[in-house]
Task: structure prediction
Amino acid sequence: MRLILASQSRFRAGLLAAAGVAVETMPAHVDEADVKQAARAEGASAEETALLLASLKAERIARRHPDALVIGGDQMLVCEGTWFDKPPDMAAARAQLLALRGKAHTLVTAVLCQRGDQRVWQHIAKPRLVMRDFSEAFLDQYLALEGEVLTTTVGAYRVEGPGLQLFDRIEGEHSEIVGLPMLALLGFLRQHGVLVR
Result:
């Protein structure tokens, strides 16, 4: 079965490729900021909003490719009730990391599969990460080392790189943190006949 990832995220595509899953990638071009603002105004939870965004992405691609199984995903960072987005620049990345320093946050990670106009599966993971009380000197060093790549992640960090040093504790599957709950998704793909059982 043709499998499409409704995303331009190289992190999600990389997770699928590393697991040996052949998938096409197609960006869905959803205005995430508008969707989040409307969802927040309607009192939606972070879980509902992440699932809504994943659904909108998958639906947009599935309409154009009804023969394919389309994977949609989204991730939101929540700390003490505040929703964080990808920082637009390095100054915002610095401010975000300072806001998260010494605190626990949750990465609400939603994934769903759609075929044509039918949603066939969905899953939400909520890994919890506790950021250590790092020094300003460490933060300066970290920002210089990682650079602009930090503006491509919702947390302004990459746990698969030097960002691991930001944390005291991480609870959850690695792929859930990177942006796609792979064990749950692989299980579904096997049950759906996309992968060999």
Summary: Helices lie at 10-18, 32-41, 46-64, 90-100, 136-146, 174-178, 182-191. The first strand starts at residue 3 and ends at 5.
